[in-house]
């Protein structure tokens, strides 16, 4: 039977039906995601560069120039202008690249390493488990302190001749905590060990909140031990998916994992993805230029203000915080019913909440699409549960 | 100093300046890329779903339903409707996923494997070198025959107790050749070894060209030994970047590499990328529905017709083919000057050609953006070189 396709009208009618089944960020009902409504300026820039492929940068010299500029801007934001990196698909690709750079660099320095190990906080994102499986690394989980930040002593105890990388987190996925990176940086410097900071979530807010007066520990390239940082424009940077960022202190880390590309307009490639959209770079560039630091300050400050509202409302409704929020993530539970049961009841009321695994709690990420009215409605619903 | 950002007008003026420095597919000057102008229907579908994240599919149930449907459509195209897979970033992520599935499955069956090996044709894409480095696999390159297809005997000689995967290619990156997959499938079945077919380039054209009457060897799931296939919608499928596809014969291959995802709306994740745009799925779905098999037949047939024109024109201009084209890739050289020098002269005339590494040649991929008028102009320029 011939398949001549269906009409354009019918294709888009069916697409709209599919879309109706998707939730929207704009509804304010997505409480458990680190993604958000992309900013219109980022969206338009993204759409302008949908044809561009940074996997073949000789063909797209304008996009490549933009990528170079945006990497410098991100480096500047994170304490070191003279930096090397790429705009990639997101935090997972960034974290895997960092672990690969660390492993390959350690093997270059010390070819005797047989069973390379990485030490990550128990709070680290699951992409490090993925990286460990992919890259044949043993993964050691360092303990957390009572505030769910990594226990530096636990890291120190785990160090061995096989350690190829230590990971610290600036804005943990589940609770938004910032690890004591300065102490870890000193330990890594003393022991000549690669330190990667996963700031996928916090990278686009900690620097701005610090300028406003919030207090955070140091976490970026100003600390000499930090070798690489993950920072995700598609989280608090307001860019569309897929837009991640990976920055390295030295070019040698990119070189340590570059693969020869015989037929392309660049000679070697260090990203995991090969053909790589330039649209993500354009969105990141446009948003940094348009919003400027002042614009991003407003965005992160507003998220913190709404976080406070939510925090107070949850306590007032009789629920328990599992920890004090440090960034725009609130985690709480009920004295009376389990986290699973609480999640179920909230889902029945239309809220897409997420559950943290350690500690078990309901986790709300106050992304820029969560407005005051959504928080108020959520608190009303919490109260209506009569717990 | 306060950075208040720049105006929207100024942002887009600067973006346009960057864009002017990029080449366009529409110009017909990009002769060495496997990407092309995305089809307008795919672009519009892509733009409709820019907010959707298949890394958290419980929030985007419409997009998830579309992905399930599109995987079945791709499976149907490649000989097996009942198939498992994902729409991902491109051929590299697909090939790495396949090698990871193969390695992990082999280790589950035989935990004694110490130094896992993969056997790939010398003509395989460089993503397999990337996969080997990442996944700690030894990579063995099987020889090619005089037509630059893999030599099946060479594969057989390389098999060992450490072999965890064999790779065959349906549409090699440099020359567009289709390996004798049926023989390789039989060998892999006999030896109980995982066979992956990289049809990133050929997957969206060989099935259509076969229906028109072109002759190709079997290469898909109809061959019982084939465990997985890479097929790239952002190449001959006309979708925007990033849009790749990976299909597995059995779900166990996805399971063998799945990682627990503690806080998301799915429990486990097998893709490399975590947060994953649903826009690519929407574009793939829309194009398959809109164009139908008849539409794709026209696209691939037209590319082959123009390939013939180019082939004849190159011979007429006194250049040498290094091999007969099997798909829409033409590779040639000059008797008088080196490939590098020929590439330089063509670049001076504005053509972005690519050079194949084995054999050394100028390589032109006749993607859908290359029209008859571009080929005629190129032939004129070849003649004007007076070689």
Automatic annotation (TrEMBL), chains A, B:
GO function term, MF aspect, one: tyrosine decarboxylase activity
Pathway: Cofactor biosynthesis; coenzyme A biosynthesis; Cofactor biosynthesis; methanofuran biosynthesis
Keyword entries, A-Z: Decarboxylase, Lyase, Pyridoxal phosphate
Gene Ontology biological process: carboxylic acid metabolic process; coenzyme A biosynthetic process; methanofuran biosynthetic process
Cofactor: pyridoxal 5'-phosphate
Annotated coiled-coil segments of the chain: none
InterPro entries assigned to the protein according to its UniProt record, in alphabetical order: GrpII_AminoAcid_Decarb, MfnA, PyrdxlP-dep_de-COase, PyrdxlP-dep_Trfase, PyrdxlP-dep_Trfase_major, PyrdxlP-dep_Trfase_small
Reactions the enzyme catalyzes: L-tyrosine + H(+) = tyramine + CO2; L-aspartate + H(+) = beta-alanine + CO2
Membrane spanning residue stretches: none
Top-level division of the source organism's lineage: Archaea
Known EC number: 4.1.1.11, 4.1.1.25
Modification sites for N6-(pyridoxal phosphate)lysine: 235
Cited Gene3D superfamilies: Aspartate Aminotransferase, domain 1, Type I PLP-dependent aspartate aminotransferase-like (Major domain)
Pfam families to which the protein is assigned, alphabetical: Pyridoxal_deC (PF00282)
Family per record: Belongs to the group II decarboxylase family. MfnA subfamily.
HAMAP family assigned to the protein according to its UniProt record, in alphabetical order: MfnA_decarbox
PANTHER family in alphabetical order: PTHR42735, SPHINGOSINE-1-PHOSPHATE LYASE 1
Protein role: Catalyzes the decarboxylation of L-tyrosine to produce tyramine for methanofuran biosynthesis. Can also catalyze the decarboxylation of L-aspartate to produce beta-alanine for coenzyme A (CoA) biosynthesis.
Protein name, UniProt field: Probable L-tyrosine/L-aspartate decarboxylase
Species assigned in the record: Methanobacterium spitsbergense
Gene: mfnA
């Amino acid at each position: 039977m011939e398949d001549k396709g269906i009409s354009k009208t019918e294709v888009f009618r069916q697409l709209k039906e599919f879309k109706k089944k998707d939730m929207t960020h704009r509804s304010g009902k997505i409480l458990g995601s680190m993604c958000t409504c992309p900013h219109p300026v980022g969206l338009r820039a993204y759409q302008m560069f949908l044809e561009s492929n940074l996997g073949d940068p000789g063909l797209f010299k304008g996009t490549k120039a933009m990528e170079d500029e945006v990497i410098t801007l991100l480096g500047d934001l994170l304490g070191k202008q003279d930096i090397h990196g790429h705009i990639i698909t997101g935090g997972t690709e960034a974290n895997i690249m960092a672990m690969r750079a660390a492993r390959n660099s350690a093997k270059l320095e010390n070819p005797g390493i047989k069973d390379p190990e990485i030490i990550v906080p128990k709070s680290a994102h699951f992409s490090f488990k993925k990286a460990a499986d992919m890259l044949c690394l043993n993964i050691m989980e360092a303990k957390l302190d009572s505030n769910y930040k990594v226990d530096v002593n636990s890291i120190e105890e785990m160090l061995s001749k096989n350690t190829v990388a230590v990971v610290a987190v600036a804005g943990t996925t589940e609770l938004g905590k910032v690890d004591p990176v300065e102490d870890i940086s000193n330990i890594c410097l003393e022991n000549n060990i690669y330190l990667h900071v996963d700031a996928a979530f916090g990278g686009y807010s900690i620097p701005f909140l610090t300028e406003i007066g919030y207090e955070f520990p140091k976490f970026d390239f100003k600390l000499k031990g930090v070798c690489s940082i993950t920072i995700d424009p598609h989280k608090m940077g307001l860019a569309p998916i897929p837009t991640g960022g990976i920055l390295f202190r030295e070019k040698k880390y990119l070189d340590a994992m570059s693969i020869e590309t015989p037929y392309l307009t660049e000679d070697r490639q260090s990203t995991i993805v090969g053909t790589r959209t330039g649209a993500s770079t354009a969105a990141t560039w446009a948003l940094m230029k348009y919003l400027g630091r002042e614009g991003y300050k407003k965005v992160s400050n507003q998220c913190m203000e709404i976080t406070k509202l939510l925090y107070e409302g949850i306590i007032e409704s009789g629920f328990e915080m599992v920890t004090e929020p440090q960034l725009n993530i609130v985690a709480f539970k009920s004295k009376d019913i389990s986290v699973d049961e609480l999640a179920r009841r909230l889902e029945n009321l239309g809220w897409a909440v997420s559950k943290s695994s350690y500690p078990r709690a309901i986790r709300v990420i106050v992304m820029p699409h969560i407005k005051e009215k959504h928080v108020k409605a959520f608190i009303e619903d919490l109260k209506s549960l009569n717990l």
